[in-house]
Write a structure and sequence with these properties.
Layout (H helix, E strand, L loop, with lengths): L1 E8 L5 E8 L2 H10 L3 E7 L5 H4 L9 H16 L4 H11 L3 H15 L4 H5 L8 H13 L2 H58 L5 H35 L2 H13 L3 H22 L4 H11 L3 H15 L6 H5 L5 H13 L2 H56 L1
Helix pairs in contact: 3-4, 3-8, 4-5, 7-8, 8-9, 8-16, 9-16, 10-11, 11-12, 11-16, 12-13, 15-16
Length: 402
């Protein structure tokens, strides 16, 4: 199906612009004629646009804007405002320029006869498969306002969770970056001046002092090597993440990394349980729900396990079969999935699991922050101690000898 922008006149002679969806231009002409419209111009819309095909850094739409969009649209639909009119109102209210353009296009396409879910699917970098399938389920059941409210709740929960994690990690990361910058500046500008005094004295320098002076000399003369390594490491990471094998290895490393591994794992478990609960409670078949969740989780290890689970279910086995065999899945999750399947309350069980893992994740982040703060103090103390022992002590010995 292609999308065509048109300009036409109705029976009263008023000019109308809009969008019509049809497999060809001829069919689009026929559709507009059936609506008693005189076509003035008709052009096929480009399938991919800059903001549609790739929402980059400059035109990215924040997730909180998506949540607000769903919430406001739900309120207007529940107040019996026609969906096209509601979208037009949101176009005027939205502050994000790129999102304003996208909502305007969505309104045009819906006004042209397209379904909301089909229109949202044209923006895969903005609306996830989970979001689109939920909207489609709402359209089918006639409860679009309830579905949009539920989606807004889920988006807000995800946003709040990510904000808490980012907020908790901001201070430690800022301190560490500051320490690194100060250390590099000292190595390049301060240590050379002190080391020149020590070398001119002719006295035997301690090994630690020699190591510090050598490091300073390296940073002064070969700083570009570190820049190349940093850029190469970043490019290598991006390349690996674009390949299935590389992404699988990196995802597994993240899950089993010291300290941070538990945080990543709980984050994936919250996404899995919350998304699957929402889809199942909306009446979407379990295999289709799992297929959507596999891409929502954001981890290739969990994605592979979820896709294997779909095959097991299609073969007549339990949903917990694959999960119970995997060492990457907590025993409680697989057992609770089995209980939910046996009792017919899988959505409720998953909802409780999501709440449980969300609380555990918050506790892990809080504990990590309380652990990092004393570690930072220890690192700072160690850095100062090394500086005193390596530089100040030889300087003190030199001054005493004089």
């Amino acid at each position: 199906m292609a999308v065509f922008d048109y300009k036409a006149k109705d029976l009263s002679g008023a000019s109308i612009t809009g969008v019509v969806e049809a497999p060809s231009e001829a069919v689009a002409q026929d559709v507009l004629k059936e609506r008693d419209l005189v076509v003035l111009s008709l052009s096929e819309r480009r399938k991919m646009r800059l903001f549609q095909s790739s929402l980059g850094f400059l035109n990215k739409v924040p997730r909180r804007d998506i949540a607000l969009f769903a919430r406001q649209l739900a309120v207007m639909i529940s107040a019996t405002v026609p969906i096209v009119q509601a979208l037009r109102i949101l176009t005027k209210q939205t502050e994000n320029v790129n999102f304003k353009i996208i909502i305007s296009e969505i309104a045009d396409e819906v006004d042209g006869g397209a379904k909301l879910s089909a229109t949202l699917a044209r923006y895969p970098n903005l609306f996830t498969d989970f979001f689109i399938h939920m909207v489609r389920a709402g359209e089918t059941t006639g409860k679009l306002d309830e579905t949009l409210n539920y989606l807004a709740d889920q988006e807000e929960k995800d946003y709040d969770l990510n904000s808490k994690i980012k907020g908790a990690m901001t201070y430690p990361i800022f301190i560490l970056i500051t320490l690194v910058i100060v250390g590099i500046l000292m190595m390049i500008f301060v240590i050379p001046r002190l080391s020149s005094i020590l070398e001119e004295s002719g006295q035997e320098l301690p090994p630690l002092t020699k190591l510090l002076i050598g490091t300073s000399t390296f940073l002064q003369n070969f700083w570009w090597v570190l820049v190349i390594l940093a850029v190469g490491g970043w490019l290598g990471y991006r390349f690996a993440m674009q390949r299935p094998e590389g992404k699988r290895v990196l995802d597994r490393v993240k899950m089993h990394a010291p300290v941070f591994g538990a945080i990543f794992q709980h984050m994936y478990l919250v996404r899995f349980a919350r998304s699957l609960s929402t889809l199942v409670s909306s009446g979407i078949p379990i295999t289709q729900s799992l297929s959507i969740v596999a891409d929502v989780v954001g981890n290739s290890v969990y994605r592979d396990l979820t896709m294997e689970t779909i095959k097991e279910i299609e073969g007549g086995n339990s949903i917990s079969t694959v999960f119970s065999r995997s060492k990457d899945i907590p025993i409680m999750l697989s057992q609770m999935l089995a209980v939910g399947e046996q009792t017919g309350k899988l959505d409720m069980i998953l909802d409780r699991l999501a709440a449980f893992y969300a609380r555990e994740l918050e506790n892990l982040v809080a504990n990590l922050v309380s652990l990092i703060e004393p570690l930072i103090l220890l690192v700072m103390g160690a850095a100062v101690s090394i500086l005193v022992v390596a530089i100040m002590m030889p300087l003190y010995s030199l001054s005493s000898a004089i």
